[in-house]
Amino acid sequence: MPHCSSWPTAASPPAGTPIPGAEAAVTAGRVRDAAGLEEFCRGRLHTSALVAAGLAAAAATGYDPLLLDQAADARTPAPALRRTARRLGRQLMRAARATWPSAELDALAAARPQGAHQPIVLGLTARSAGLTPLEAAYAAAYESVSGPAGATVRLLRLDPFDAVAILARLAADIDHVAAQAAEAAQHVSAEGLDALPAASAPLLDITAEQHATTPARLFAS
What we know:
The chain is mainly α. The protein has twelve helices and no strands.
C-alpha cells in the first residue's frame, strides 16, 4: 500500500478522524512545498482517511450510528481530534437536516446533542440523500485530502493549480481507499465493528494536540 515516508503508514492500532492537520505540518516544517503537500496527503489518505471512509460507508449501510460513533472514539486517541470531529459533525448535522431531513438524522442529533463524529454524520447524510456506501466512502476520502490541499495553498501561498494537480494525481489512491472502505463496511453486520479499518497515524495525533494549544493559528484544526 502506498505511504509517505515522513508520515505514519497504515497499521492496526487506532487512528484519527478526518481533520486537515495541514497547519501543524507546515508549522513543524514537514510540509514546505507542493511535493511535501502531496506526500502528506498520500500518507493521510491511507491512514486516517481510510478509517473515516470506512465509518462513513458503514453509516450509509444503515448500521447503528451510535455503535459507529463509539468505534470512531476508539479509533481517535487524540482528545483534540475527538473534539474537533464532534464539532464538525454537529455543524454538518445542521446542514444535513435542513437539506435531506430524515428520521435517522433526527435520532442521531437527539442522541448526540454535542455532535457525533463527522464521518458518521457524513455517512448518514449520504444515506438520507440516497447515495450508496461507496459514494459515502468517496466523499470521506476526498474530503480528507482536499481540506489539507486547500489549507496549504493559503498557508504557503502555493499556486492553487498545483494543489488541483496533486488531487488529480491522488485519484487512483482515492479510488482504492474508497473501495477498500466500502468493502469493509459490507462485513460489519456479520463480523462486527472489527471489520472496519483501524489504521494508525500517530504523528497526526501528536501534532493535533500541539496545534490545539498554539495561541496563534489560522485554522482551528
